[in-house]
Design brief:
By secondary structure, the chain is of the alpha/beta class. It is 56% helix and 10% strand. The chain is built from 16 helices and seven strands. It has helices at residues 3-11, 26-38, 43-49, 60-68, 94-98, 120-128, 142-152, 159-169, 173-187, 195-201, 210-218, 222-234, 241-258, 266-273, 280-309, 319-331; strands at 18-23, 50-54, 77-82, 104-111, 130-134, 156-157, 192-193. Helix 8 runs parallel beside helix 10 and helix 12 packs antiparallel against helix 16 (319-331). The chain is elongated.
């Protein structure tokens, strides 16, 4: 099942007795648990019929006993087991899951891992429960996901604004969603989110960021690169090398793919690269500026400087100095 399917069913008052939420992406698990905790029951019903356990402190017998209770003054009760991956003897829940109480909605949050598929518990969950297994989004899926979150809140966003937001934050769905919430509160319903809004309310400079460094490097604008790196040097949180290098590698990897897509239509190229067609001109420009061998050389340099940033062959060298040396060697 998906988060939208589970929450959509709940909104229609369609409930199953057991929901098991597991996997790598905490954001999707937290989204479902938050809805269960705050929206299945009314405020008056929750006082008698909402029970929350935390895996580290929970005893399996207490959890099962709570699940087997009947609701008071309501059609159903909700029992939440958060951080269930920390619970001892969690397999003891198997007996309840096999024969659950129909008037209980039991939601289990099992983060960062999955139940062993060979276990009896896994087999019972597949037969009797609703199972949500979450995965981390790939980086090329982040813009589409962020755009959908923005759309659901009644906003639009410029392509540059979207890229700036995603490239700066990276693969942290909770933080992206939090920043979108902040923007929605500040800019007014139904408006378009711009780079200026992101600079004002998220705190990302529209001129000095990884996205602009990438563009300057694509144009072989050495002076522009140095200005941005100097800003990063003075504002370490704006562009730590651990964030800059993966972003540049991602960009030039896609530029490298361009050489195998010559003659394809823009829509096909954008789909193959996983990018907004608006930015194809940047990838094509970089491909022309560097050529096939030049892009290969850039990717090799990024690998070398990633090792240096970890202290391999460059002990005591500042991040700013490494990045300046790197862009000079790329452009020269």
């Amino acid at each position: 099942m998906s988060t939208s399917k589970i929450i959509g069913d709940w909104q229609k008052k369609l409930f199953k007795p057991v929901y098991w939420l597991e996997g790598e992406e905490d954001y999707f698990i937290d989204e479902v648990v938050s809805y269960a905790e705050n929206h299945i029951l009314s405020e008056a019903e929750a006082g008698f019929n909402l029970t929350v356990f935390y895996g580290k402190d929970a005893d399996w017998t207490a959890v099962i006993n709570a699940c087997r209770r009947y609701p008071m003054f309501a059609e159903r009760q909700v029992v939440l087991l958060k951080e269930a991956q920390q619970m001892r003897d969690i397999d003891k829940l198997e007996g309840y899951i096999e024969h659950p109480q129909p008037s209980t909605v039991f939601v289990v949050s099992y983060k960062e891992k999955k139940v062993d598929g060979r276990s009896r518990l896994a087999k019972v969950l597949k037969e009797k429960g609703e199972l949500l297994t979450t995965k981390k989004l790939y980086d090329n899926q982040l813009p589409e996901w962020a755009m959908e979150v923005i759309r659901r809140k009644g906003f639009t966003i410029t392509p540059k604004g979207l890229n700036l937001l995603v490239e700066h934050i990276g693969n942290d769905l909770s933080r992206i969603a939090s920043e979108i919430d902040k923007l929605s509160v500040n800019i007014g319903k139904g408006k378009e989110i711009t780079e200026e809004d992101i600079e004002n309310y998220v705190g990302i400079s529209k001129e000095y960021n990884v996205f602009e460094l990438q563009n300057a490097l694509a144009r072989k604008d050495l002076a522009g690169c140095i200005r941005i790196i100097q800003y990063f040097d003075a504002n370490p949180k704006a562009g730590p090398i651990q964030m800059v290098l993966p972003a540049l590698y991602n960009f030039f990897s896609k530029v490298y793919q361009m050489f195998g897509l010559s003659g394809a239509a823009d829509k096909e190229v954008a789909a193959a690269l996983g990018v907004n067609p608006f930015f194809l001109k940047d990838y094509r420009g970089a491909a022309r500026a560097y050529g096939y061998e030049g892009v290969e050389r850039v990717l090799l340099l990024l690998h070398q400087y990633n090792l240096k940033s970890l202290g391999v062959g460059a002990v005591g060298v500042s991040d700013g100095s490494l990045m300046k040396e790197m862009v000079f060697r790329m452009i020269a």
